[in-house]
Amino acid sequence: MNGLVLAPVLVPLVAAALGLVAWRHPDLQRYVAVGGSAVLLVAGVALLVNVERDGIQTLQLGDWPAPFGITMVADLFSAILIVLTGVLATATVLYSTATIDTGRERHAYYPLTMVLLAGVAGTFLTGDLFNLYVWFEVLLIASFVLLALGGERAQLEGALKYVALNLVASAVLLVTIGVVYGMTGTVNLADLSGRMAAVEPIGLVDAVAAMLLVAFGIKAALVPLFFWLPASYHTPPVAVSAIFSGLLTKVGIYALVRVFTLLFADEALDFQPLLLTVAALTMVIGVIGAVAQHEMRRLLSFHIISQIGYLVMGLALFTVNAMAGLIYFLVHVALAKSTLFLVAGAVRQLTGSFELSKTGGLWVLKPGLALLFGIAAMSLAGIPPFSGFLAKLALIEAGLELDQLLIVLIALGVSLMTLYSMLKIWNAAFWKPLPTDLEPFADGAAAVTPERVAGTRLALMVVVPIVFLVGCSLVLAVAAGPAFDLVERAAVQLMEPAAYVEAVLGGTP
């Protein structure tokens, strides 16, 4: 059954290869991508069930024993994130089949998406630092091309900023890996878990931790390393923005959680003031940026930054309850953010614009879409009884347990500002009447009028992914008891890494 550990990487790679074979057949590429995403989701669920039942699963590629070979590892945390990857992949690829133009399809949009998913899955499952870098580069290359695909000026500008700053992060990460190998003679994460504690002087370990914080902090868009995200995430097609918002910054958070729990558990308290400060600034600056926007995608892009602050708050608190809240929050926010981007795309199809001033009336004209937006928006803002409320409550309770009142108050204040920004979208796009002086659609067929909006039917593959993601978010809230039981066990594995080390090394010192 250990072959399941490799399946989430192999499935999208095979789908990418098949998509390239079908280069001249866009319809076949779509079928392959949808099938690959669905199989990825099934493989993720099977892996999670296997890990939950039988414990942490490992695979030593080439039958080389750890720490000398390439190790793939699936614990509860990584298995949960693989399932999340499958869910978001299925939704966004389905959405893509109805929204991506044939020009992008002919330039390997679907194979690139599959390569991106393979990079994400590889990052979640790799057992050593060097291959973490390798999988980061795989997803970076695929994401850069997806950002630039189409060749529009705004896209190219955003893509250049994106790749430039992420290459800096990659360079810092590669240098740090070299330093770690020079200090310890290994890059295997389980092996490093024991060896880093013996490194002298202690200041050198702190320096390595700081370098990894910078490298992964850029990829996670932490303040002050976040500038690339709002400059780029609003430029590609909505389906690309949705999967980026759900997964790419979360990969950076995953890496921070993994290295701090395995490599720097003893240093975590030393970094707590810095991490709490970064968390607070990320929350506040992100939400202020969101409130100031008048274009839906840019507003939602700034909210990605803001919500990352809550995840860093969970890492900074560094308790089992905080880690459980972090994992639950990560799943919740990935679902909510991707949903909101897909809704933004639907609004654009109906009204011809992402600008809030050029939208309106959708509560009356498209009440179903308004309801789906309302559920996702209220969940993001942390309104009960949705999953966002439960996620923020878990983090706030963890903060109160440690008497960290300041970060708790900041988290509550940012939640109120998040609600304000969601109401801003609601009032502009759904509640106020549709403006009467709008320009015609790009096709010039007719002006944007209430009659045209009401008569426009969204494609099934636009509506189904949104309903699917909203349904997953509601299940996360309704099944909060079993969900929190699962994430608490995942948090225990993270905070007590002896089982992870034993599973990888098999008792090898």
Short description:
This protein has helices at 7-21, 26-54, 76-99, 102-106, 109-125, 129-148, 153-184, 189-195, 202-220, 228-232, 238-262, 268-291, 296-317, 320-351, 362-365, 367-381, 387-401, 405-431, 450-455, 460-478, 480-495, 498-505, and strands spanning 57-61, 70-74. The protein is mainly α and 509 residues long. It is globular, with a radius of gyration of 22 Å.
Features:
22 helices, 509 residues, mainly alpha, two-stranded antiparallel ribbon, single chain, globular
Task: Describe the 3D structure.
The chain contains 22 helices and 2 strands. β1 and β2 form a beta hairpin. α6 packs antiparallel against α7. The longest helix has 32 residues. The relative contact order is 0.11. With 509 residues, the protein is mostly helical.
What overall geometry do the principal axes of the alpha carbons give?
Answer: globular
Give the strand content.
under 5%
Order of helices and strands: HHEEHHHHHHHHHHHHHHHHHHHH
Q: Summarize the biggest pleated sheet.
A: 2 strands, antiparallel
> How far is it from the N-terminal to the C-terminal residue, by CA?
26 Å
Uncertain runs are none
What's the overall average pLDDT, rounded? Answer: 91
Structural class: mainly alpha
Number of strand segments: 2
User: Percent helix among the residues?
Assistant: over 70%
Strand order of the largest sheet: 1-2
Rg over alpha carbons: 22 Å
Number of helices: 22
